[in-house]
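Re: weekly structure request thread

Next one in the queue (107 aa):
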Amino acid sequence: MKHLLYPHRFTVRCTRAERRLLAERVRASGLSVSRFLIQTGINSANPASVDDRARLERLLFQLHKIGVNLNQLTRRINTGIPVGAEPLDRALRAVADIGRSLSGSDS
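Done, posted below.
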């Protein structure tokens, strides 16, 4: 009789990591996967727009590049190669700029 109560089906795609996380959250909720997805989809705030997601992906890419630069600077410092304050300052300012962008503040 459930098919009469719930006549519509959805198929969703996800990564293995997303599926594991979803399964953990479903178990913790005590709901079925279907009910969990419906309730969280209906009761949660609006998801990020395509533009917002693209912006976040660009910021994550920039953070990754900064991380690579910091790793290279750290490696140089650890091998005894002198590193001036300017490259470190640039990297820290770039991280701060991204932080402000994520918080929606331009100052």
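The mean pLDDT is 86. The two ends are 58 Å apart (CA to CA).
Next request, please.
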